[in-house]
Amino acid sequence: MKNLKNKTIPYGRQNITDEDINAVVEILKSDYLTQGLKIQEFENAFANYVGSQYAVAVSNGTATLHLNSIALGVKPGDKVITTPITFVASANCVRYCGGEIIFADIDPKTYLLDINAVRKILEADTKKEIKGIIPVDFAGRAVDLEAFRQLADEFDCWIIEDSCHSRGGFFIDSQGEKQHCGNGKFADLAIFSFHPVKHIATGEGGMITTNNEDLYKHLINLRTHGIQQDFSKRIFDDSLWYYEMQELGYNYRLTDIQSALGYSQLKRADQGLAKRRELAKTYQKAFINKTYIKGQSGVVEGHAYHLYIIEVEKRKELHKYLRDQNIFAQIHYIPCHLMPYYRDLGWSEGDLPMAENYYKHCISLPMFPTLTTEEQTFVIETIESFFK
Ligand SMILES: *Cc1c(COP(=O)(O)O)cnc(C)c1O
Q1: Which of 54, 66, 302, 344 has the highest count of CB atoms within 10 angstroms of its CB?
Q2: 10 Å Cβ neighbour count for 113?
Q3: Which atom of ligand 1 is nearest to the CA of 197?
Q4: Pair 296, 204 in one domain
Q5: How far is CA 49 from the centre of its chain?
Q6: Which of residues 211, 240, 266 is at a domain's end?
């Protein structure tokens, strides 16, 4: 086994090229560091990429979720369903608006929100308190949103697709058509994050996509203090200096500096995605017949491979063993309902057995476009040597 010991291998890493750097420098030399033209250019390119009509660039992924909860009218007493196997932000956004989160269990084969579990919860909701569903394209695997849309319509719920892991991912619908994550066909709103471990890095950053014009216009105002951005919609005045705050909003803008970086990254995002899919194939091939593997991400059409996950026994020991070889594997995620904050709200161990069992065994292996063949081979061989 080749020794790469003095080089750390993280589970994810951004890829910044000279072209990206030049794009940022250009903005730094320009008149507008924020609220310039680059934001809209990035939004248009992003909407075009995912196939949605509208896109709203926002300061980070969590802020996109917060604005979505406001735009969809979440208020105290409302309930919203999501998966426990996600980053806590997917659930927290409902709490920001005083709503209640109901975690539904996952399907152990896909690691995604189990639609049958969601249906059961909706059927038991005789008081009709549940207003929405937040499915997550976890690890980069696209949720079957066509099925979720049918269910949501049956119970009069909205859908926010948390696509933070799945830029470029898709599922195949009942007509055999590719439906790209965030294309707005089934979900009311979809969200993306540009945190450096995700597919596109802007430092901090996020994007909302939608096909709903009313929601789009509302989000544009909410992002900038609730100040009406459409001059023709002003109520009291039409002077050039005049601006009008019509509701309580925030400063959740993305800067032009970040937008330039995101726009530049988006241009070669498909290359990165192809590389991730290649790495996934190599992992799958290496582990497919190994008895120590209890489950793995596998090779699934449309998977965007933000993460490559395997399930093993002795996960904690393997994690430590890899760490000793400078391989920084990660665990995604500690189930949200087991966080002290959500335990205080009444959740406890045993509530969601599939998610909890998954958490005992899962480990995310290094997965990013610049991972070299040599590094991936070292990761695979180190795992093999642990189980020998
Ligand atoms: C990263 C992430 C978020 C939050 O995005 P930030 O940009 O870090 O605020 C939300 N949901 C999921 C599934 C994520 O992975």
Answers
A1: 66
A2: 27
A3: 1
A4: no
A5: 16
A6: 266
Are residue 189 and residue 201 in the same domain, yes or no? yes
What's the 165 CA to ligand 1 centre distance in angstroms?
Answer: 8
pLDDT in tens, 160-180: 999 999 999 999 999 999 999
Q: What is the pLDDT of residue 5?
A: 61
Residue with tokens 């909407």: 47
12 lines ligand 1 (CB under 6 A): no
Q: Which of 266, 287, 310 is the last residue of a domain?
A: 266
Cβ atoms < 10 Å from Cβ of 293? 18
User: With a 6 A CB cut-off, is 184 part of the ligand 1 pocket?
Assistant: no
pTM over 0.90? The answer is yes
Best residue among 193, 306, 307 to mutate for probing ligand 1, ranked by most atoms within 8 Å of CB? 193
> What's the CATH number where 128 sits?
3.40.640.10
DSSP letter assigned to residue 140: G
Nearest atom in ligand 1 to 195's CA: 7
Give pLDDT tens digits for 324-338: 999 999 999 999 999
Decide: 162 in ligand 1 pocket, CB within 6 A: yes
Same domain, 93 and 196: yes
195 lines ligand 1 (CB under 6 A): yes
Please tell me the total count of domains within the chain. 2
Range of the domain at 171: 18-266
Query: Per-residue confidence at 3, pLDDT binned at 50, 70, 90?
Result: low
- Give pairs for 312-316: CB < 8 Å, separation 24+: 312/361, 312/363, 312/387, 313/361, 315/360, 315/361, 315/362, 315/363
